[in-house]
Amino acid sequence: MARSPEDRKAARAAASRRWRAAHPEVVRETNRLQYAAHREVRLSAARLWYAANLEKARATSRRWNAAHQDRARAAKRQWNAAHRETVREAARRWRATNPEAVRAAKHRWYAANKEAARDYQRRRRIAHPEIQIAQAQRRRAAKAGVLSTLTAAEWEAIKAHHKGRCVYCGKRTKMTQDHLVPFDKKGPHSMGNVLPSCQSCNSHKLTGPPLKPVQPLLL
Fold it and tell me: Which residue, 30, 75, 103, 141, shows the most beta carbons closer than 10 Å to its own?
């Protein structure tokens, strides 16, 4: 009795499955060669399918990742290493559009890694004292309710303009930020209101008038 076209098709499919099961290495090598020869076509088709079946693709990916966690992690590390700039740019965009999530993640990390966080802060203070100074002054300005626009780079420019010397005594030593109009008199924390001063002169001036006529750096 002659077989119907459907039966013949099913028989061919069954035979193909048996052959593929018996020759996995040949199948893999054939697939690899075909992919290499038609890579762009296959990638384009995959992108189109992915865009048209986004939820299905994500669900399939999640299932595969859950079933092959070690391979998924290794593949992710390999891809990230080969596309560092792409990864960094994506992370920058995500942080810019999700500031609340970033802050929440930082809080969780600090809460779970208190010792590591303290060690990181200590190393950061040693390596970048100018950033710590800028942050402390911004906190003081916010507490006083005054404008705060001075950046670490502007503070470095102010010190360079005065050649690293105190504007009052001329001493070249570690500089502090002296505010011509103090915070308690609503003076801003800005480039036009800050001068480099040694600790001694700054303590002597406190919230009083300048110890001598001085000109702030105006750009």
Answer: 141
Tell me which H or E stretch contains 197: strand 194-197
CB atoms closer than 10 angstroms to residue 166: 23
What pLDDT score does 216 carry?
72
Q: Each residue of 186-210: pLDDT tens digit?
A: 989 998 899 999 999 998 887 777 8
Count how many domains the chain has: 2
Containing structural domain, residue 198: 147-205
Tell me how far apart the alpha carbons of residues 108 and 145 are, in angstroms, rounded to a whole number: 30
In sequence order, the 6+-apart residues with CB closer than 8 A to the CB of 192 are 216, 217, 218
Beta bridge partners of 72: none
Q: Global pTM?
A: 0.46
Which residues in the chain land under pLDDT 50?
A: none
